[in-house]
Protein backbone atom coordinates (compact mmCIF):
# COMPACT_ATOMS: atom_id res chain seq x y z
CA UNK A 1 0.00 0.00 0.00
CA UNK A 2 1.24 3.40 -0.91
CA UNK A 3 1.52 5.75 2.08
CA UNK A 4 1.98 9.48 2.32
CA UNK A 5 5.62 10.29 2.95
CA UNK A 6 5.55 12.30 6.15
CA UNK A 7 9.22 12.94 6.87
CA UNK A 8 9.26 16.22 4.96
CA UNK A 9 6.08 17.40 6.69
CA UNK A 10 7.39 16.60 10.14
CA UNK A 11 10.74 18.20 9.34
CA UNK A 12 9.06 21.39 8.14
CA UNK A 13 6.84 21.69 11.21
CA UNK A 14 9.68 20.78 13.55
CA UNK A 15 11.99 23.40 12.07
CA UNK A 16 9.24 26.01 12.30
CA UNK A 17 9.08 25.29 16.02
CA UNK A 18 12.83 25.52 16.45
CA UNK A 19 13.42 21.80 16.94
CA UNK A 20 15.82 19.60 15.02
CA UNK A 21 15.58 15.94 14.07
CA UNK A 22 18.71 14.05 15.25
CA UNK A 23 21.13 12.69 12.67
CA UNK A 24 21.07 8.88 12.50
CA UNK A 25 23.68 6.49 11.14
CA UNK A 26 21.09 5.10 8.70
CA UNK A 27 18.81 6.95 6.29
CA UNK A 28 15.34 6.17 7.60
CA UNK A 29 13.44 8.41 5.17
CA UNK A 30 11.95 5.43 3.28
CA UNK A 31 9.82 4.39 6.22
CA UNK A 32 7.82 1.79 4.31
CA UNK A 33 11.00 -0.13 3.53
CA UNK A 34 12.28 0.11 7.10
CA UNK A 35 8.98 -1.03 8.59
CA UNK A 36 9.04 -4.03 6.26
CA UNK A 37 12.68 -4.79 7.03
CA UNK A 38 12.46 -4.48 10.80
CA UNK A 39 9.23 -6.44 11.04
CA UNK A 40 11.25 -9.51 10.01
CA UNK A 41 13.89 -11.41 12.03
CA UNK A 42 17.38 -10.05 11.42
CA UNK A 43 20.19 -12.41 10.42
CA UNK A 44 23.12 -10.45 11.81
CA UNK A 45 23.97 -7.94 14.52
CA UNK A 46 24.27 -5.08 12.04
CA UNK A 47 20.64 -5.55 11.06
CA UNK A 48 19.58 -5.68 14.71
CA UNK A 49 21.42 -2.42 15.43
CA UNK A 50 19.89 -0.72 12.38
CA UNK A 51 16.36 -1.71 13.47
CA UNK A 52 17.02 -0.47 17.00
CA UNK A 53 18.03 2.85 15.42
CA UNK A 54 14.78 2.90 13.42
CA UNK A 55 12.82 2.32 16.61
CA UNK A 56 14.62 5.29 18.26
CA UNK A 57 13.89 7.38 15.16
CA UNK A 58 10.17 6.58 15.37
CA UNK A 59 10.05 7.44 19.06
CA UNK A 60 11.78 10.77 18.44
CA UNK A 61 9.35 11.58 15.65
CA UNK A 62 6.38 10.67 17.85
CA UNK A 63 7.63 13.02 20.60
CA UNK A 64 8.09 15.83 18.08
CA UNK A 65 4.57 15.27 16.79
CA UNK A 66 3.19 15.65 20.31
CA UNK A 67 5.14 18.90 20.73
CA UNK A 68 3.63 20.14 17.47
CA UNK A 69 0.13 19.18 18.60
CA UNK A 70 0.64 21.04 21.87
CA UNK A 71 1.81 24.10 19.94
CA UNK A 72 -1.19 23.84 17.62
CA UNK A 73 -3.58 23.70 20.59
CA UNK A 74 -1.86 26.70 22.21
CA UNK A 75 -2.27 28.67 18.98
CA UNK A 76 -6.00 27.87 18.91
CA UNK A 77 -6.38 28.93 22.54
CA UNK A 78 -4.95 32.36 21.70
CA UNK A 79 -6.84 32.63 18.40
CA UNK A 80 -8.33 35.95 17.38
CA UNK A 81 -11.20 36.37 14.93
CA UNK A 82 -9.06 36.30 11.82
CA UNK A 83 -10.01 33.93 9.00
CA UNK A 84 -6.48 34.03 7.53
CA UNK A 85 -5.02 32.95 10.86
CA UNK A 86 -7.60 30.17 11.12
CA UNK A 87 -6.73 28.98 7.61
CA UNK A 88 -3.03 28.87 8.47
CA UNK A 89 -3.77 26.83 11.60
CA UNK A 90 -6.09 24.57 9.62
CA UNK A 91 -3.32 23.82 7.15
CA UNK A 92 -0.96 22.96 10.01
CA UNK A 93 -3.62 20.72 11.53
CA UNK A 94 -4.09 18.94 8.20
CA UNK A 95 -0.36 18.21 8.06
CA UNK A 96 -0.34 16.94 11.64
CA UNK A 97 -3.42 14.79 11.10
CA UNK A 98 -2.04 13.29 7.87
CA UNK A 99 1.27 12.55 9.59
CA UNK A 100 -0.43 10.89 12.53
CA UNK A 101 -2.83 8.88 10.39
CA UNK A 102 -0.01 7.60 8.23
CA UNK A 103 2.05 6.75 11.31
CA UNK A 104 -0.82 4.81 12.90
CA UNK A 105 -1.52 2.91 9.69
CA UNK A 106 2.13 1.96 9.33
CA UNK A 107 2.28 0.74 12.95
CA UNK A 108 -0.87 -1.36 12.59
CA UNK A 109 0.54 -3.05 9.50
CA UNK A 110 3.92 -3.49 11.17
CA UNK A 111 2.37 -5.14 14.23
CA UNK A 112 0.54 -7.64 12.04
CA UNK A 113 3.75 -8.45 10.17
CA UNK A 114 5.77 -8.78 13.39
CA UNK A 115 3.24 -11.14 14.96
CA UNK A 116 3.39 -13.32 11.83
CA UNK A 117 7.20 -13.17 11.90
CA UNK A 118 7.21 -14.31 15.53
CA UNK A 119 5.03 -17.32 14.67
CA UNK A 120 7.36 -18.26 11.81
CA UNK A 121 10.41 -17.70 13.99
CA UNK A 122 9.11 -19.98 16.76
CA UNK A 123 8.68 -22.76 14.20
CA UNK A 124 12.20 -22.14 12.84
CA UNK A 125 13.67 -22.18 16.34
CA UNK A 126 11.99 -25.49 17.14
CA UNK A 127 13.22 -27.02 13.88
CA UNK A 128 16.75 -25.71 14.40
CA UNK A 129 16.82 -26.99 17.99
CA UNK A 130 15.75 -30.43 16.78
CA UNK A 131 18.47 -30.37 14.12
CA UNK A 132 21.10 -29.34 16.67
CA UNK A 133 20.01 -32.08 19.08
CA UNK A 134 20.24 -34.68 16.31
CA UNK A 135 23.69 -33.53 15.20
CA UNK A 136 24.87 -33.39 18.78
CA UNK A 137 23.70 -36.94 19.42
CA UNK A 138 25.35 -38.22 16.23
CA UNK A 139 28.71 -36.65 17.05
CA UNK A 140 28.64 -37.95 20.62
CA UNK A 141 27.71 -41.42 19.38
CA UNK A 142 30.59 -41.50 16.91
CA UNK A 143 33.05 -40.22 19.47
CA UNK A 144 31.91 -42.86 21.95
CA UNK A 145 32.32 -45.51 19.26
CA UNK A 146 35.82 -44.31 18.47
CA UNK A 147 36.59 -44.15 22.17
CA UNK A 148 35.56 -47.78 22.55
CA UNK A 149 37.78 -48.75 19.64
CA UNK A 150 40.90 -46.99 20.85
CA UNK A 151 40.46 -47.36 24.61
CA UNK A 152 38.49 -45.83 27.45
CA UNK A 153 41.04 -43.23 28.45
CA UNK A 154 43.47 -42.29 25.71
CA UNK A 155 45.27 -39.63 27.65
CA UNK A 156 46.03 -41.95 30.58
CA UNK A 157 46.95 -44.81 28.25
CA UNK A 158 49.36 -42.61 26.35
CA UNK A 159 50.94 -41.32 29.59
CA UNK A 160 51.26 -44.78 31.10
CA UNK A 161 52.58 -46.18 27.88
CA UNK A 162 51.09 -48.48 25.28
CA UNK A 163 51.81 -52.17 25.04
CA UNK A 164 53.90 -51.54 22.02
CA UNK A 165 54.53 -49.05 19.27
CA UNK A 166 51.77 -50.41 17.05
CA UNK A 167 49.26 -50.08 19.86
CA UNK A 168 50.29 -46.44 20.47
CA UNK A 169 49.97 -45.63 16.76
CA UNK A 170 46.52 -47.23 16.69
CA UNK A 171 45.38 -45.09 19.61
CA UNK A 172 46.84 -41.88 18.16
CA UNK A 173 45.21 -42.66 14.80
CA UNK A 174 41.86 -42.97 16.57
CA UNK A 175 42.24 -39.49 18.06
CA UNK A 176 43.10 -38.10 14.65
CA UNK A 177 40.03 -39.72 13.10
CA UNK A 178 37.81 -38.08 15.73
CA UNK A 179 39.41 -34.73 15.03
CA UNK A 180 39.31 -34.99 11.24
CA UNK A 181 35.95 -36.71 10.76
CA UNK A 182 33.94 -34.66 13.21
CA UNK A 183 35.65 -31.28 13.22
CA UNK A 184 33.63 -29.92 10.27
CA UNK A 185 30.38 -31.11 11.79
CA UNK A 186 31.32 -29.67 15.17
CA UNK A 187 32.02 -26.30 13.52
CA UNK A 188 28.71 -26.43 11.66
CA UNK A 189 26.99 -27.38 14.88
CA UNK A 190 28.48 -24.35 16.60
CA UNK A 191 27.30 -22.16 13.73
CA UNK A 192 23.79 -23.55 14.09
CA UNK A 193 23.87 -22.85 17.81
CA UNK A 194 24.97 -19.25 17.15
CA UNK A 195 22.13 -18.84 14.63
CA UNK A 196 19.73 -20.28 17.18
CA UNK A 197 20.81 -17.79 19.83
CA UNK A 198 20.34 -14.90 17.35
CA UNK A 199 16.89 -16.19 16.44
CA UNK A 200 15.93 -16.43 20.09
CA UNK A 201 17.16 -12.91 20.75
CA UNK A 202 15.27 -11.71 17.65
CA UNK A 203 12.12 -13.38 18.93
CA UNK A 204 12.52 -11.45 22.17
CA UNK A 205 13.23 -8.21 20.28
CA UNK A 206 10.18 -8.62 18.07
CA UNK A 207 7.95 -9.46 21.04
CA UNK A 208 9.17 -6.33 22.85
CA UNK A 209 8.72 -4.32 19.65
CA UNK A 210 5.11 -5.51 19.40
CA UNK A 211 4.37 -4.45 22.97
CA UNK A 212 6.00 -1.04 22.47
CA UNK A 213 4.23 -0.38 19.18
CA UNK A 214 0.85 -1.33 20.67
CA UNK A 215 1.48 1.08 23.55
CA UNK A 216 2.47 3.80 21.09
CA UNK A 217 -0.70 3.14 19.09
CA UNK A 218 -2.80 3.92 22.15
CA UNK A 219 -0.90 7.18 22.65
CA UNK A 220 -1.26 8.11 18.99
CA UNK A 221 -4.98 7.40 19.02
CA UNK A 222 -5.24 9.74 21.98
CA UNK A 223 -3.34 12.31 19.91
CA UNK A 224 -5.91 11.87 17.15
CA UNK A 225 -8.65 12.56 19.67
CA UNK A 226 -6.87 15.74 20.81
CA UNK A 227 -6.53 16.92 17.23
CA UNK A 228 -10.17 16.21 16.43
CA UNK A 229 -11.40 18.13 19.46
CA UNK A 230 -9.25 21.17 18.78
CA UNK A 231 -9.96 21.07 15.05
CA UNK A 232 -13.71 21.05 15.67
CA UNK A 233 -13.31 24.27 17.66
CA UNK A 234 -11.30 25.72 14.79
CA UNK A 235 -13.95 24.75 12.25
CA UNK A 236 -16.76 26.25 14.32
CA UNK A 237 -14.93 29.56 14.64
CA UNK A 238 -14.14 29.57 10.91
CA UNK A 239 -17.74 28.85 9.92
CA UNK A 240 -18.90 31.91 11.82
CA UNK A 241 -16.61 34.14 9.77
CA UNK A 242 -16.38 32.49 6.36
CA UNK A 243 -19.53 33.90 4.71
CA UNK A 244 -18.08 37.27 3.66
CA UNK A 245 -14.78 35.80 2.49
CA UNK A 246 -16.52 33.03 0.55
CA UNK A 247 -18.90 35.51 -1.07
CA UNK A 248 -15.94 37.64 -2.14
CA UNK A 249 -14.04 34.68 -3.55
CA UNK A 250 -17.02 33.23 -5.43
CA UNK A 251 -18.45 36.52 -6.69
CA UNK A 252 -15.24 37.42 -8.48
CA UNK A 253 -15.62 37.51 -12.26
CA UNK A 254 -15.19 34.00 -13.61
CA UNK A 255 -12.52 33.43 -16.22
CA UNK A 256 -14.81 31.59 -18.62
CA UNK A 257 -11.93 30.67 -20.93
CA UNK A 258 -10.14 28.76 -18.15
CA UNK A 259 -13.18 26.57 -17.44
CA UNK A 260 -14.65 26.36 -20.93
CA UNK A 261 -13.71 22.71 -21.46
CA UNK A 262 -15.59 21.78 -18.30
CA UNK A 263 -18.71 23.85 -19.09
CA UNK A 264 -21.63 22.99 -21.34
CA UNK A 265 -21.67 24.80 -24.71
CA UNK A 266 -24.44 27.22 -25.68
CA UNK A 267 -26.95 26.15 -28.27
CA UNK A 268 -27.85 22.90 -26.50
CA UNK A 269 -30.92 21.45 -28.24
CA UNK A 270 -31.44 18.28 -26.26
CA UNK A 271 -34.45 17.59 -24.09
CA UNK A 272 -34.59 16.60 -20.44
CA UNK A 273 -36.77 13.74 -19.26
CA UNK A 274 -39.28 14.97 -16.69
CA UNK A 275 -39.51 12.94 -13.47
CA UNK A 276 -42.19 13.09 -10.79
CA UNK A 277 -39.83 13.71 -7.88
CA UNK A 278 -36.24 13.75 -6.63
CA UNK A 279 -34.50 10.75 -5.13
CA UNK A 280 -31.73 10.98 -2.55
CA UNK A 281 -28.38 11.48 -4.29
CA UNK A 282 -26.52 9.69 -1.46
CA UNK A 283 -27.43 6.55 0.45
CA UNK A 284 -26.32 6.38 4.07
CA UNK A 285 -24.34 9.01 5.92
CA UNK A 286 -25.79 11.84 7.96
CA UNK A 287 -26.72 15.50 7.56
CA UNK A 288 -23.87 17.34 9.27
CA UNK A 289 -25.00 20.91 8.50
CA UNK A 290 -28.33 22.22 7.29
CA UNK A 291 -29.21 25.06 4.95
CA UNK A 292 -28.99 28.74 5.99
CA UNK A 293 -26.76 28.26 9.07
CA UNK A 294 -24.06 26.00 10.49
CA UNK A 295 -24.87 24.34 13.84
CA UNK A 296 -22.44 26.66 15.64
CA UNK A 297 -23.45 29.77 13.72
CA UNK A 298 -22.42 31.29 10.41
CA UNK A 299 -24.16 31.47 7.03
CA UNK A 300 -24.48 28.18 5.17
CA UNK A 301 -26.23 28.20 1.81
CA UNK A 302 -26.61 24.48 1.26
CA UNK A 303 -26.84 21.03 2.79
CA UNK A 304 -23.75 19.15 4.00
CA UNK A 305 -24.18 15.41 3.67
CA UNK A 306 -21.44 13.67 5.65
CA UNK A 307 -20.41 10.31 4.20
CA UNK A 308 -17.19 8.32 4.06
CA UNK A 309 -14.92 8.99 1.10
CA UNK A 310 -15.93 6.92 -1.92
CA UNK A 311 -19.69 6.85 -1.28
CA UNK A 312 -21.70 6.95 -4.51
CA UNK A 313 -23.37 10.22 -5.55
CA UNK A 314 -26.15 9.62 -8.08
CA UNK A 315 -28.33 11.88 -10.19
CA UNK A 316 -31.38 12.87 -8.07
CA UNK A 317 -33.30 13.32 -11.32
CA UNK A 318 -32.76 12.88 -15.04
CA UNK A 319 -31.03 15.81 -16.69
CA UNK A 320 -27.96 17.26 -18.37
CA UNK A 321 -24.56 18.09 -16.86
CA UNK A 322 -23.78 21.82 -17.00
CA UNK A 323 -20.34 21.66 -15.37
CA UNK A 324 -18.03 18.88 -14.18
CA UNK A 325 -14.39 19.19 -13.16
CA UNK A 326 -12.16 17.33 -10.70
CA UNK A 327 -8.87 19.28 -10.28
CA UNK A 328 -8.42 18.65 -6.54
CA UNK A 329 -7.02 15.68 -4.56
CA UNK A 330 -9.73 13.42 -3.13
CA UNK A 331 -8.72 13.89 0.52
CA UNK A 332 -6.85 17.19 0.21
CA UNK A 333 -9.48 19.43 1.79
CA UNK A 334 -8.70 21.92 4.54
CA UNK A 335 -10.02 25.28 5.67
CA UNK A 336 -8.77 27.95 3.31
CA UNK A 337 -8.19 25.60 0.38
CA UNK A 338 -9.81 27.55 -2.46
CA UNK A 339 -9.14 24.96 -5.15
CA UNK A 340 -11.93 24.27 -7.61
CA UNK A 341 -14.84 26.16 -9.11
CA UNK A 342 -16.73 27.85 -7.54
CA UNK A 343 -13.78 28.84 -5.36
CA UNK A 344 -13.22 26.25 -2.62
CA UNK A 345 -15.63 23.73 -4.12
CA UNK A 346 -12.84 21.28 -4.92
CA UNK A 347 -14.26 18.77 -7.36
CA UNK A 348 -17.72 19.96 -8.45
CA UNK A 349 -20.70 19.09 -10.63
CA UNK A 350 -23.70 21.20 -11.64
CA UNK A 351 -26.68 19.63 -13.41
CA UNK A 352 -30.01 20.76 -14.84
CA UNK A 353 -33.18 18.70 -14.31
CA UNK A 354 -36.95 18.81 -14.71
CA UNK A 355 -38.93 17.65 -11.69
CA UNK A 356 -42.71 17.85 -11.80
CA UNK A 357 -42.56 20.39 -14.60
CA UNK A 358 -40.18 22.78 -12.78
CA UNK A 359 -36.61 23.32 -13.92
CA UNK A 360 -33.97 22.95 -11.17
CA UNK A 361 -30.20 23.28 -11.04
CA UNK A 362 -28.47 21.05 -8.50
CA UNK A 363 -24.80 21.40 -7.54
CA UNK A 364 -22.45 19.03 -5.73
CA UNK A 365 -19.13 20.07 -4.17
CA UNK A 366 -16.11 18.54 -2.36
CA UNK A 367 -16.35 15.34 -4.42
CA UNK A 368 -13.67 12.71 -4.90
CA UNK A 369 -11.17 13.16 -7.71
CA UNK A 370 -11.41 9.44 -8.38
CA UNK A 371 -14.57 7.91 -9.76
CA UNK A 372 -15.70 11.04 -11.60
CA UNK A 373 -18.28 9.57 -13.99
CA UNK A 374 -19.72 12.48 -16.02
CA UNK A 375 -18.66 15.43 -18.16
CA UNK A 376 -20.24 18.68 -19.32
CA UNK A 377 -23.01 18.28 -21.90
CA UNK A 378 -23.70 14.66 -20.96
CA UNK A 379 -27.28 13.52 -20.43
CA UNK A 380 -27.90 11.43 -17.32
CA UNK A 381 -30.79 9.34 -16.02
CA UNK A 382 -32.20 9.48 -12.53
CA UNK A 383 -30.11 7.24 -10.26
CA UNK A 384 -27.10 7.22 -12.60
CA UNK A 385 -23.68 7.50 -10.94
CA UNK A 386 -22.23 11.01 -11.08
CA UNK A 387 -19.22 10.80 -8.78
CA UNK A 388 -18.03 9.70 -5.33
CA UNK A 389 -17.93 11.67 -2.11
CA UNK A 390 -14.60 13.16 -1.05
CA UNK A 391 -12.93 15.84 1.02
CA UNK A 392 -11.69 18.31 -1.57
CA UNK A 393 -11.31 22.09 -1.59
CA UNK A 394 -12.40 24.27 1.34
CA UNK A 395 -13.64 21.34 3.39
CA UNK A 396 -13.17 20.26 7.00
CA UNK A 397 -13.91 16.57 6.45
CA UNK A 398 -15.47 13.99 4.10
CA UNK A 399 -18.87 15.20 2.89
CA UNK A 400 -20.84 16.43 -0.10
CA UNK A 401 -22.21 19.98 -0.16
CA UNK A 402 -25.48 20.17 -2.10
CA UNK A 403 -27.35 23.24 -3.34
CA UNK A 404 -30.67 23.39 -5.21
CA UNK A 405 -31.89 26.32 -7.36
CA UNK A 406 -35.43 26.73 -8.59
CA UNK A 407 -35.30 28.22 -12.11
CA UNK A 408 -39.06 28.57 -12.41
CA UNK A 409 -40.44 28.77 -15.95
CA UNK A 410 -36.99 29.12 -17.58
CA UNK A 411 -36.63 26.87 -20.61
CA UNK A 412 -33.86 24.31 -20.91
CA UNK A 413 -32.32 26.19 -23.83
CA UNK A 414 -32.42 29.47 -21.92
CA UNK A 415 -30.90 27.91 -18.81
CA UNK A 416 -28.09 26.25 -20.78
CA UNK A 417 -27.23 29.43 -22.64
CA UNK A 418 -27.25 31.46 -19.43
CA UNK A 419 -24.91 29.05 -17.65
CA UNK A 420 -22.65 28.69 -20.70
CA UNK A 421 -22.12 32.46 -20.79
CA UNK A 422 -21.81 33.15 -17.04
CA UNK A 423 -20.84 29.83 -15.35
CA UNK A 424 -22.73 31.20 -12.35
CA UNK A 425 -23.42 28.31 -10.00
CA UNK A 426 -25.61 30.61 -7.86
CA UNK A 427 -27.89 31.68 -10.76
CA UNK A 428 -27.81 35.32 -9.69
CA UNK A 429 -28.77 34.62 -6.07
CA UNK A 430 -25.34 35.56 -4.72
CA UNK A 431 -23.27 33.98 -1.98
CA UNK A 432 -23.75 36.11 1.13
CA UNK A 433 -27.45 36.22 1.96
CA UNK A 434 -30.58 34.13 2.47
CA UNK A 435 -32.68 36.92 0.97
CA UNK A 436 -32.98 35.05 -2.31
CA UNK A 437 -34.45 31.94 -0.68
CA UNK A 438 -37.52 30.61 -2.48
CA UNK A 439 -40.80 31.85 -1.07
CA UNK A 440 -41.07 35.35 -2.43
CA UNK A 441 -42.31 34.14 -5.82
CA UNK A 442 -39.22 35.35 -7.66
CA UNK A 443 -36.96 32.95 -9.57
CA UNK A 444 -34.23 31.87 -9.81
CA UNK A 445 -34.19 31.30 -6.06
CA UNK A 446 -32.45 29.05 -3.55
CA UNK A 447 -34.34 26.02 -2.29
CA UNK A 448 -33.52 24.20 0.90
CA UNK A 449 -32.22 20.78 -0.26
CA UNK A 450 -33.82 19.32 2.86
CA UNK A 451 -37.15 19.96 1.15
CA UNK A 452 -36.28 17.18 -1.31
CA UNK A 453 -33.50 15.09 0.25
CA UNK A 454 -32.79 13.49 3.58
Automatic annotation (TrEMBL):
Segment forming the signal sequence: 1-25
Top-level taxon: Bacteria
Molecular-function GO terms, alphabetical: metalloendopeptidase activity
Domain M23ase beta-sheet core: 300-408
Coiled-coil portions: 55-138, 175-255
Residue ranges occupied by any Peptidoglycan hydrolase PcsB coiled-coil domain in the UniProt entry: 125-197
Keywords from the UniProt entry: Coiled coil, Signal
Gene3D superfamilies: 6.10.250.3150, Glucose Permease (Domain IIA)
Identification of the protein by name: Peptidase
Amino acid sequence: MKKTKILSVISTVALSLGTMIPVYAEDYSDEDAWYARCSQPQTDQAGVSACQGFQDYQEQKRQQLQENINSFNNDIASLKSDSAEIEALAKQQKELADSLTSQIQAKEESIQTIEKSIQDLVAQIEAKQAEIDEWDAQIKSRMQSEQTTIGTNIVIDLIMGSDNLNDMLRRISGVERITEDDQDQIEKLNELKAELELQKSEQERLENETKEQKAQLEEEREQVKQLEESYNKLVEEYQKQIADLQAKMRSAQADIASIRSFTISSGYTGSIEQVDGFINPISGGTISAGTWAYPGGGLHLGLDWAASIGTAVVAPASGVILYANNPAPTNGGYLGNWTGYPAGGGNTIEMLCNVGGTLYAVSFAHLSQNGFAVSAGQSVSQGQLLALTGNSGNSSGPHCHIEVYNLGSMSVEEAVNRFASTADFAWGTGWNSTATACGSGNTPCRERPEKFFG
